[in-house]
Amino acid sequence: MLHRWGIDIHPTFPSLVPHTNPHFQPDNQTMISYCTKCLLPDTKPDLSFDEEGVCNACTNFANREEVNWEKRREELDTILARYRKTDESYWDCVVPVSGGKDSTFQVIKMLELGMNPLCVTATTCDLSDVGRENIENIKRLGVDLMEFSPNPNVRAKLNRIGITQVGDIAWPEHVGIFTIPVRAACQYKIPLIVWGENSQHEYGGPAAAVESNTLDRRWLEEFGGLLGMRVSDLVGQEGIKKKDLLPYVYPTDEELSSAGITGLFLGHYIPWDGYSNALLAQAYGFKTLTHTAEGSIVNYENLDNHQHGIHDYFKFLKFGFARATDIASLHIRRGRITREQGLDLVKRHDGKFPLSYMEKPLEDILDKIDMTVEEFTRICDKFTNKKIFEKDARGQLIKDRKGNLTKVNYDNP
Predict the structure, then answer these.
(1) What pLDDT digit, counting tens, does each position of 151-184 carry?
(2) Sheet (strand 192-195) strand order
């Protein structure tokens, strides 16, 4: 994760398919409405606003003040005691990891609470050097780590199919985040899986998901990367066979029941904060970039995969916001920056054409999936919500010399 094994890929799962917002009007442009507290737009799937224009992500965060965190911590201790092997005969839990800030924090926390985790990761689609360093750092924390490497030839085909058909180059990674650790838990009969945050609580979502503190098959199918394209849809495309898709197939209900698999969101029991997670992770050897990641406003997340820039850019094309908006909104809620400061950062960094990511040129990133920049640009235009970007008199998207688009509006009128 992908910091992403910490389950903070939140804002993008619904972006696998073009989104129709009830606010959109059948005219040539659409004015975007923004939360009056943070910067999230009404184009974001599953986001809602109250009568004062405040989004449910901000409301959920404000409701944290009503939570008895001491009691929840006691609940966590009780759950972990139930699964802890007092005779130290086996692993106590599975912790999905990528080496990102959140999954590093999860491992630190489980060790702190006396658990013996089996860490499980799947190598990401285009692993960066710092991503590799951070995976190795998790091992140095003193845990067993199982690293699964899906067939890179098949995965490249899935990347290409994902970006071409549903506008998500990271489709195989989104799915593997959930399937591979769960398959490992079933295989080794380790019933408890410890995830990071419940992303639907942090970033807004259906009320039923907001209070969910366990992972089940229903949660995966609703939020876990399968929207827009099912694994079964891929058999026969580009020569892909059923056996090629084994890493991306979620265990059956029978397999889950046989192994007694359950999951919990650590963020349900501990107030979740990506920034403080990053600070703690750094104290334990986690590496960040020496510069702000392209399209972002920080240097401590989305460091493992060179394809992240493309993934975030498509979110911007579909919904008019991307990584910088997400992060700025998190910090606005926590009072670290003002809304005005966040808006300035978003205008400077959000939604830029991904000429590179972590200093790897776009041409080299696309070469791994056998795609040219010209073909990529055509696909970008295909998935762009043209109603929320400026166009010329002929109705064509206006781009600057670097290929950047301009939104119709960046804030409420």
Answers:
(1) 999 999 999 999 999 999 999 998 898 899 999 9
(2) 144-148, 117-122, 93-96, 192-195, 262-265
